[in-house]
Amino acid sequence: MESRSIIIALVIGLIAGWLANLLVGSGGGLIAYLVSGLIGSFVGSFVLEKAGIDLGIKNEIARAIATATIGAVIVVIIARLIV
Known about the structure:
By secondary structure, this protein is an all-alpha fold. It has 3 helices and no strands. It has one domain.
């Protein structure tokens, strides 16, 4: 993987984690945003694929952020239930 791709993935994860925090109010800092966003990207992709949901977003970056945010919200809610 190119270093540019890694940086883009980290930025998308950070944005998604921050957006999930705004939606759910999970608190935390940059590391918490990054972790929830990166894990959320996998969870969101899995859930949307299994549910057969197409977000209809043509822009690849915007679609990745939306997918990761959906997943990050799920991750934060599950983390709250466990802790």
